[in-house]
Design goal:
Elements: E1 7-9, H1 11-15, H2 18-21, E2 26-28, H3 30-34, H4 39-46, E3 52-54, H5 59-72, H6 78-90, E4 93-95, H7 99-107, E5 112-113, E6 122-129, E7 136-137, E8 152-160
Parallel strand pairs: 1-2, 1-4, 2-3, 4-5
Antiparallel strand pairs: 6-7, 6-8
Helix pairs in contact: 5-6, 5-7
Protein name: Ribonuclease VapC5
Keywords: Hydrolase, Metal-binding, Nuclease
GO cellular component, one term: preribosome, small subunit precursor
Length: 165
């Protein structure tokens, strides 16, 4: 008998109660649990916390995810980086509605499912640009070094998601 694929939940999936519905091994990171703040959500989480394995990803996977996010121009939080890294490390299905998380996951070949939204239909590469002087900058820049204007983000390239079938 084939075992079920592991499932990694981001905070949105936890708040939607998905671990209670998913068979097999369910994982999340300590950071995702810390994001559950309000008492109603914590109370709901307590009903299925026993189904969750709380694991921190290995640093080498965190580094891979950070590099891919930077390459795509995605500004992921530390929590988002870790949940994607855990899915990569475990070769798991990732449940998330965060488009940035899904963009990086897809670029890394991680299978994903959205929880409450349609999800993404392709990979996007972003770039930072100055709306005043029209120059482009690497993703880590926040302010134009030439004129001091706060940089904005725009699509640099998009690749449609391949459908299995």
């Amino acid at each position: 008998m084939r075992s079920l694929r592991p499932i990694v939940h981001d905070t949105g999936s936890l708040l939607a109660g998905m671990p209670a519905l998913m068979p097999g091994e369910n994982y999340t990171t300590p950071d995702n649990l810390e994001e559950v703040k309000d008492s109603n959500s914590k109370s709901a989480l307590e009903r299925y916390i026993y189904k969750l394995k709380v694991v921190s990803p290995d640093q080498r996977y965190v580094k891979i995810v950070m590099e891919k996010a930077r390459e795509l121009g995605e500004d992921l939080s530390e929590t988002d980086v870790k949940v994607v890294a855990l899915a990569l490390q475990l070769n798991a299905l990732l449940l998330s509605d965060d488009y940035g998380v899904l963009n990086v996951a897809q670029a890394l070949g991680i299978e994903w499912k959205s929880v409450r939204t349609k999800g993404i239909d392709g990979n996007i590469k972003w770039e930072k640009f100055c709306p005043a002087c029209k120059r482009s900058y690497p993703p880590e820049y926040k302010v134009c070094p030439v004129c001091g204007t706060v940089l904005k983000r725009r699509v640099r390239g998009k690749r449609k998601r391949r459908r299995d079938g």
